[in-house]
Amino acid sequence: xxxxxxxxxxxxMRTSIKIMLESEQFDVLEAEDGNEAVEKYKEAxxxxxxxxxxxxxxxxxxxxxxxxxFDPNAKIIVVTAMGTEFMIRDAIQLGASxxxxxxxxxxxxxxxxxxLL
Amino acid sequence: xxxxxxxxxxxxxxxxxxxxxxxRLEQLIxxxxxxxxxxxxxxxxxxxxxxxxxNSMMMMFEGIAGLSHITxxxxxxxxxxxxxxxxxxxxxxxxxxxxxxxxxxxxQLEAGGEPLGKPESLxxxxxxxxxxxxxMNSDQAKTIQKEKDQIEQKSQKYYIAPDKGDEKTTHKEPDxxxxxxxxxxFSAGSEMENIxxxxxxxxxxxxxxxxxxxPSEIVEDEGAMEYIQINGFQILFRSTEKEETIHxxxxxxxxxxxxxxxxxxxxxxxxxxxxxxxxxxxxxxxVEEIGESVIDSTTEVQGxxxxxxxxxxxxxxxxxxxxxxxxxxPETELTAxxxxxxxxxxxxxEETEIVLNDMPEIVPEINDELIALEEKAKKDKxxxxxxxxxxxxxxxxxxxxxxGIPKVDKLMDLVGELVVSESMVTRNPDLTDVQLExxxxxxxxxxxxxxxxxxxxxxxxxxxxxxxxxxxxxxVRDMKKKVGKDxxxxxxxxxxxxDKNVIEQIGDPLMHIIRNSIDHGIxxxxxxxxxxxxxxxxIILEAKHSGGDVWITVKDNGKGINTEHILNKAESKGLLMKxxxxxxxxxxxxxxxxxxxxxxxxxxxxxxxxxxxxxxARNVEALGGTIIIDSELGKGSEFAIRIPLTxxxxxxxxxxxxxxxxxxxxxxxxxSFSAKEHxxxxxxxxHEMCMIRGECYPILRLHDRFGIKTECKTINxxxxxxxxxxxxxxxxxxxxxxxxxxxxxxxxxxxxxKVEGISGCALLGDGRISLILDPAGLVNM
Amino acid sequence: xxxxxxTQKGKYLTFEIEGDAYGLEIQHVDDIIGIQEIxxxxxxxxxxxxxxxxxxxxxxxxxxxxRFGKEFRNYDDRTCIVVLDMNGTPVGIVVDRVLEVTQIPExxxxxxxxxxxxxxxxxxxxxxxxxxxxxxxxxxxxxxSHSDTDLIVSTE
Lengths: 117, 781, 156
Prior knowledge:
The structure holds three protein chains of three kinds.
Chain A lengths: L2 E5 L3 H12 L4 E5 L2 H11 L3 E5 L7 H11 L5 E5 L4 H9 L4 E4 L4 H11 L1
Parallel strand pairs in A: 1-2, 1-3, 3-4, 4-5
Helix pairs in contact in A: 2-3
Chain B lengths: L9 H26 L3 H21 L2 H19 L7 H23 L9 H17 L1 H19 L10 H4 L7 E9 L6 H12 L4 E6 L7 H10 L1 E7 L3 H9 L4 E9 L1 H12 L9 H25 L18 H16 L3 H10 L5 H30 L11 H22 L10 H24 L1 E3 L1 H18 L3 E6 L4 E3 H22 L3 H6 L6 E10 L2 E8 L6 H10 L12 H7 L20 H11 L3 E7 L3 E9 L4 E9 L2 E6 L3 E6 L5 E3 L5 E5 L2 E7 H4 L13 E7 L2 E7 L1 E11 L11 E6 L5 E5 L1 H5 L2
Helix pairs in contact in B: 1-2, 1-4, 2-3, 3-4, 3-5, 4-15, 5-6, 11-12, 14-15, 16-17, 18-19, 19-23, 21-22
Chain C lengths: L1 H7 L2 E7 L2 E6 L3 E6 L13 E7 L2 E7 H4 L12 E7 L2 E7 L1 E7 L5 E2 L13 E7 L2 E6 L1 H5 L12
Parallel strand pairs in C: 2-11, 5-7
Antiparallel strand pairs in C: 1-2, 1-8, 3-6, 4-5, 6-7, 9-10, 10-11
């Protein structure tokens, strides 16, 4: 069973994504912020990470950087809202594999994840 | 129901979170209005709108999403811009209107319905206000944009690393180095196709050299997105990777459609380069030469990209439109802009009129537009009024406890049972004559623990009144504007905690009392002046614990209650039972609680027809509490609500009728005595009465009323308990009084028929069951 | 869960009233306790004796004899209260004595007789046979619902 870490400061988003993933038999792990994301990545080594890059505090971008430093093969999907082209571009340069834009539905999320695995 | 079926289970969470966020938002925005300082709350407000927007988008609630989006934009601007003088009142009004809309939508969702449609006019209003800010600060905006551009430029450095850097590929065997062209589209709706394209290219750069693509600019150029949507994306590159590897990579591109990967021949590659560079390139003879020249051209291409960014005219970051300043034709444009800016700044009806009046030579089309705007504004205002009225009516559920309520109730029941069973153990008849020292010690310890447990469990249901008070804040703010009175509203003790049940029920009565205060209590500004009152009208809402009760009081410095008016009104309604002079003030005030009683001739929008106070009294009583009025003519009034903290436990007087034990709440008892000392009279219809200090009170034989066989039938042998409810008095006749006891109130099973005069039952210490008497039911026989 | 339900099917608690054996489906039975003090509650139907304190819970109790229109019999030490579950609300019934829990297969159950029209018949779901003796199987719901025939009379 593949493991996916969902990083987002909004519980609502984490739970929404979790619901979408668990129905496809993914093991889901949650993190509330960049720091937690990095720590949990090191511990649990999920197969894919979804990262919200609009969180306050330690931004998703920094977390992407650190995770990729730790594991150059880390597969990270950026989750963001419209109007953040530059952030996405930066995220990709830092090593993010792909991105999805809010609002997204289950199909889009799964498509991106499946292509990564 | 959310349109996204997968997210239906999220509805409850969505509603819960949104309510929490909205409540917090309301608090923040009103605080900032009062303090005249948005800076502290701004960041949080922005984040709240951002979160609501995200959540609503996931649930596909477009109305809420759109509204929160524009509000987010507004606050994004406010938090970044400097030297902006926000119009606090206007902003607060807009945000509060938005909050009302969202509140109603959420309520409808909670009830299983649909959220409201998109509030177009409100969104438009917010947008216009935002536009006016940005317009006024177009220099500001220019600077912000300039900063943005600089950041972009800096990040240019991180843009696709020049392909010249890749050592690996250049050292490979020439025959493995092939050119490829890849063409594909992104599936519809995948969004930000240009960035997706960037991600594809970026992810591939370690596997290829000399990567060219059409369109060549993909990140900064928004046009690229559209281009790719329509025409697809094309990549040309050289690579020494195995063909399978290349296919594998491109097949793993998410959202890609019609993916075509073509290995190119030497000639095809040359041709392609020309196409991609948009220049004519001479055919090359060797592969290496191709390599070099391609490298050079790509550098030029990159250079080209950098310079374009600088020259781009700035785009208004907030509206995405070119501001008016940039349009051609200076002459006519000047008049147009100045008018429009005035209009944009002052969108209210009245001010629009002033603009119209002051500028008789306005270009006709603009005039018509302004008139149309006016009409729309009027209509939408009316609609918003409705929305707001609906929002005000709702008291709605307060904050949820994170634990489901049934669980907490069950926990409370169990603790109640535990308390009872504990006394059943300690007061067990088996133990009456036995001395057990160790047992007693253990029992005492046991009791201490149980008491503490009970306290804590009771406190779980306790919540601060702050949310309720916040609602009152809003009410006062809205009302005082409407009635045009200057009123200071002070909240005290909002952290005071009460049972959740109380929180849910107390809102309506409080609102009514405060409305009364504002409407009838506080005089209009002129009247206050005339009567020599120096200070502004003031209302204090206070909550505090005292003894085992919570006191919630509403005090105002208005005109007070005119007892004469009330007495006259009471007289005209035939409610007087004695001479006017004999009534104490307190008794006079109590008339206000009679239904249908109102000394106000006019019914205002807010306080209704005087049917309010009797409902208020009933609501308070349903909570087990009482309400007391105090007032001084010309100085002000005070409404005090007292609510006992723990409702399930009452102080009762136990009395027996043969083998049955009854408990009567102490609060209902005035006095008790043996009948021997007083005269018992029987009237012609057989009703028994007793004279006490010159007053005649009816006797109610409990054994008769409840059909209990008892030996004690003579009044003189038993005991009379004077019981009062709602001004009515009756003398209950029982066999004997057994003493006072605190009892835990339990409901009689729903299986049993309801009995008037009995409100429940209680378990006594020895395990016996006593019936709790309901004074209301008894006295009104 | 369904296993438990299945094993409960066909099982009856049998008890005695005036020498006759009666049965109730075991799935409705929550508890069986020895007779204890019943606190009278005024203004209830004749058969409702009052309420009992069952480990802190208030359980209304009715006397089956009175429900059937039979004569009241003084309680002795074999009298029991069978606590039934009426859609979440517990209700107790007083019976002369409790017999046992037993399986009565369907083939041993026949339709109730229709010719007699006294009170009892409304409550009968069927007649079962156990060890060659008839067991009157009662309809729990009908037994416990308030019927018109039960008059509100002052308690004695």
